[in-house]
Design a protein that fits this description.
This protein is α/β, with parallel strands linked by helices. Helices cover about 30% and strands about 25% of the residues. The strands form two sheets. Strands 3-2-1-4-6-12-10-7-8-9 form a ten-stranded mixed β-sheet, sandwiched between helices. The chain has a two-stranded antiparallel ribbon with strand order 5-11.
């Protein structure tokens, strides 16, 4: 894990998320890129360098956030992009090779009833970059117990488990698998990928209406420090991924959530 991207919004909690990312990166010897995405175009009759001025202003703001945290010995660089958020993420990933995004769940959205706000929801929904969603005020600690929840053990995308493997090896985590049999499951869904089995110490099979309900049922007994889920067309968050925002009533846990995409790039 070499490059970590941290989208920084205008929230007062931005420095808390960045500090978490720095502490995380220290453990893995990774670099951090804070992202500034803006939208500006120079039209006839306007200043030709308007984009440069906006970019410069954004960089100064990000430098201010960086100066408020303990950066330790982690290299923190600023990555700017003029255009749409998702296009910027994909372009930065293409140029730098991003191994993980670390962000707060609500990003710039201040609605307390939301788990994922509009910005954070789009990042998770519209990119295939592994994402670690860190609740507000969370301090970085070792993930002693990891719960991996899924409704199908089939993983077709190569290297999808790389971030999870890196984390669990570094932290020497105990990994518990939770396979949730939901209505309409197939026998193939019960065939758990060998790579998942190799890193786990226990497999629990549950029957629930949704994967999330399965997580709620076993959350207290497993005492996880990290929840890992998969985003796919047919799986966890199947309905939730159809929109950008996710309500707390639909999904919410008080621990970091690692989201891995099974979709092909």
């Amino acid at each position: 894990m070499k490059n970590i991207l941290v989208p920084i919004g205008t929230s007062q909690d931005a420095k808390t998320t960045l500090q978490y990312a720095v502490d995380f990166a220290t453990d893995f010897g990774a670099n951090i890129y804070v992202m500034e995405v803006f939208s500006a175009s120079a039209k006839t009759g306007t200043l030709s360098n308007v984009s440069e001025k906006i970019a410069a202003s954004g960089k100064e703001r990000l430098k201010g956030v960086i100066n408020e945290i303990d950066s330790k010995k982690v290299a923190i660089k600023i990555a700017s992009f003029n255009g749409e958020l998702v296009d910027g993420l994909k372009e930065i990933d293409k140029n730098l090779g991003i191994d993980l995004i670390i962000m707060a769940p609500r990003s710039n959205d201040i609605q307390e009833e939301l788990y994922l706000g509009h910005t954070s929801g789009r990042i998770v929904k519209q990119t295939n970059i592994p994402t670690l969603v860190v609740p507000k005020g969370t301090k970085y600690t070792t993930f002693k117990n990891v719960l991996v929840a899924f409704k199908s053990g089939i993983l077709k995308r190569k290297r999808i488990l790389d971030p999870l493997v890196s984390i669990t090896r570094k932290h020497r985590s105990e990994v518990n698998l939770l396979l949730v049999k939901t209505p309409g499951y197939s026998d193939d869904d019960l065939r758990v990928n060998t790579a998942l089995m190799d890193i786990s110490s226990q497999l629990t099979i549950s029957e629930n209406a949704t994967t999330y309900l399965g997580v709620l049922e076993h959350f207290q007994s497993k005492h996880p420090d990290l929840l890992c889920v998969f985003r796919r067309k047919r799986g966890f968050f199947k309905k939730l991924w159809e929109k950008s925002t996710i309500l707390k009533s639909e999904f919410s846990v008080p621990i970091p959530v690692l989201i891995l995409s099974t979709k092909k790039d």
